[in-house]
Amino acid sequence: MATDVEVPALGESITEGTLAEWLKKPGEAVAADEPIASLETDKVSVEVPSPVAGVLTEQLVQAGDTVAVGAVIARIDQNASAGAPSPAQAAAASTTNPAGAGETPGLRGDAASPQPTPANAETSDDNITTLSPAVRRAVLEYHVDPTRIRGSGKDGRLTKDDVIAAAEAQKSQASIPAQTGAEAPSSLVTPAKAGAQPEEKPGSRVRGNDERREERVKMSRLRQTIAKRLKEAQNTAAMLTTFNDVDMSAVIDARSRYKDLFEKKHGIRLGFMGFFVKACALAAKDVPSVNASLEGDEIVYHDYLDVSVAVSAPKGLVVPVVRNADRMSFAEIEKTIAAYGKKAKEGTLTVDEMSGGTFTISNGGVFGSLLSTPIINPPQSAVLGMHRIEERPVVKDGQIVARPMMYLALSYDHRLIDGREAVTFLVRVKEAIEDPTRLLIDL
Q1: What is the β-pairing status of strands 359-363 and 307-309?
Q2: Which residue among 4, 33, 253, 414 is the active-site one?
Q3: Catalytically annotated residue among 126, 418, 435, 442
Q4: What predicted TM-score, i.e. pTM, was given to this entire model?
Q5: In angstroms, rounded to a whole number, what is the distance separating the alpha carbons of residues 214 and 156?
Q6: Which tens digits make up the pLDDT trace of 26-48?
Q7: CATH assignment of 113-177+185-190, given 3.40.50.2300, 3.40.50.300, 3.40.50.1370, 4.10.320.10?
Q8: Which of 24, 94, 258, 287 could make an SS bond with 36 (beta carbons 3.0 to 4.6 A apart)?
């Protein structure tokens, strides 16, 4: 009895996704609720679980195909026994993997010649076809070749720890001068011998002994969506940016005095983001248009502040939403942001966690940015950009002194927000950060 595997609901307003990879091959046994494929949507990666236990008999779409919600992508036979797939199934499986997956391609013009196989050839094909989203992101982050790593997971699959260990071994090997007879770490393939021609990766070019390479990689669905939305924001909004700087001395002093007590009580570190979220919530009460949005010819004002916090993920910037941030304590804000940051790195953020948002805060300072002009995240009308803290000379009480200063940038939609309102909002944030007592007495 064959059971259809359908594309599950992917979230509000999302009607389709891209099949990123198959996690199971035809002929393999699957358990109920075990992931058999990975989908990429405009916002997140989603695993497709098997509705029943059985054997995967058919893959009806290929990796890279766009599939609609509810579409049948595979079939599971509950009565079949696991084993080698039929010739038709094997042919179908071969079309779902990129050319050369599980193999080491040879030089251009010599594709037909036999190639040396990795030391872990018996598991390399499984590693390629069963990478989970978290492992795939680790591969991209650490720049390692998954076909050259021996998996320690179930059925020889790669785990995130395998990728990290291989990256560390690769780094250690690169720092040690080559020695005659030295062996590579067991998880890696022995490097090419001196004088050998460099291998050519798919989509790259190699000329003679030069190692000038070009590689073409298709944009992920998430990256395509980011590009589309950012350009749409520039084309639609009358975007303008106003700047100010803020003395971080008071916040730094407060953190130094209370960080140990705060962490002991709440189990989370006291960061800067909590102060800025609270400061924006306070400022939005005085300037509600910054927390509003345009819908046609109407302005929608919100009596709540849902803050989209820009977080770096392996495939690009994502903006999970801290809902009702204006009603949260410092500890609740910090815990929520920390949880989102962890999920972003693991690739487990859900669509609901990134939907909505009435205002955005982006902290480019964690990457060393001194100043920037952030882009609005539609349909929001404003975004606050934080930057790195550095000591600069400022005048205090007639004296030139060094202070830890940060530049703030507020990009806003001039169709909705006047310059006076934008400047007032930023000044309110500055006042609250330079005198955090204002956050406690709502001033």
Answers
A1: parallel
A2: 414
A3: 418
A4: 0.58
A5: 32
A6: 888 888 888 888 887 766 677 88
A7: 4.10.320.10
A8: 24
